[in-house]
């Protein structure tokens, strides 16, 4: 059962009208085989969306075990609780799929990031990413001397299409140092990250992925 307050990421599976948008919402109640969520907000528009009744949607969220889960459902009706809400059919537990860490959507993107070297006496530095996912990221290091196995703290600047900029934080471990096309980079795997920050990163990745697909169709 989804706890009240769980942040959700929604994608509408029906029709081209909603194909380019990802939405965010929160669980406000779960009872009688139904999930109640507040009105979804579009990532691009940053406005409440009026999604159609009977629309099929795919939902993803971060569970208590820090893993990402996903399931498909449909909108049953609009209801009025303490606030306007959407009533969704609660899926059978067996249809909820756990996304393994290696299955996180990874997208190539250059976002600003601050890397703090946790070991005493080491300086922090700013750089840009090569890619990012819900499980980690790669950063350009060039003149920095990160070491495989080193622990760092990172602050990521995530710019959404709506104009909203969110700062997400995590602790990570340097998994690998590599040189590709004369660009030195480090692969980092998240070791400590809040559900909220991981969900924000996943939403950002989905948005960038859908933006790329839209451009490819033009």
What's a quick, concise take on this entry?
This protein has 218 residues and is mostly beta strands. The chain has one helix at 195-217, and strands at residues 7-12, 23-31, 34-38, 41-42, 56-62, 68-80, 84-89, 97-99, 107-108, 112-117, 125-133, 136-140, 151-159, 165-180, 183-192.
What attributes characterize this protein structure?
Pnp Oxidase, Chain A, Thrombin, subunit H, mainly beta, elongated
CATH superfamily of the largest domain: predicted glycosyltransferase like domains
Average pLDDT works out at: 87
Q: In angstroms, what separates the terminal alpha carbons?
A: 41 Å
Low-confidence stretches: none
Radius of gyration: 19 Å
Helix proportion range: 10-25%
Order of helices and strands: EEEEEEEEEEEEEEEH
> What name does the CATH topology of the largest domain carry?
Thrombin, subunit H
Tally of contiguous helical segments: 1
Summed up, the domain count is: 2
Explain this structure to me?
The chain has 218 residues and is mainly beta. The protein folds into two domains: 7-99, Pnp Oxidase, Chain A; 107-217, Thrombin, subunit H. 11% of the residues lie in helices and 50% in strands. It has one helix spanning 195-217, and strands spanning 7-12, 23-31, 34-38, 41-42, 56-62, 68-80, 84-89, 97-99, 107-108, 112-117, 125-133, 136-140, 151-159, 165-180, 183-192. The strands form two sheets. The chain has a six-stranded antiparallel barrel with strand order 1-2-3-7-6-5. The chain has a six-stranded antiparallel barrel with strand order 10-11-12-15-14-13. A hairpin with a 3-residue loop joins strand 6 and strand 7. The N and C termini lie far apart (41 Å). The mean pLDDT is 87.
């Amino acid at each position: 059962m989804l706890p009240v307050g769980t942040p959700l990421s929604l994608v509408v599976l029906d029709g081209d009208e909603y194909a380019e948008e990802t939405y965010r919402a929160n669980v406000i109640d779960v009872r009688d085989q139904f999930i109640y969520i507040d009105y979804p907000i579009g990532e691009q528009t940053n406005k409440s969306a009026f999604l159609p009744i009977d629309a099929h949607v795919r939902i993803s969220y971060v569970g208590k075990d820090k893993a990402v889960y996903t399931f498909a459902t449909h909108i049953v009706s609009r209801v009025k609780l303490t606030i306007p809400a959407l009533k969704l059919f609660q899926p059978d537990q067996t249809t909820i799929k756990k996304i393994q860490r290696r299955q996180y959507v990874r997208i190539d993107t250059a976002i600003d990031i601050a890397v703090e070297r946790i070991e005493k006496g080491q300086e922090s530095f700013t750089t840009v990413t090569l890619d990012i996912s819900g499980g980690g990221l790669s950063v350009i290091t060039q003149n920095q001397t990160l070491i495989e196995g080193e622990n760092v703290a990172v602050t990521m600047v995530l710019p959404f299409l709506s104009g909203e900029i969110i700062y997400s934080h995590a602790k990570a471990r340097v998994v690998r140092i590599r040189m590709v096309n004369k660009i030195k980079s480090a692969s980092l795997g998240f070791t400590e990250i809040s559900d909220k920050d991981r969900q924000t990163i996943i939403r950002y990745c989905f948005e960038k992925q859908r933006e790329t697909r839209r451009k490819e169709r033009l």
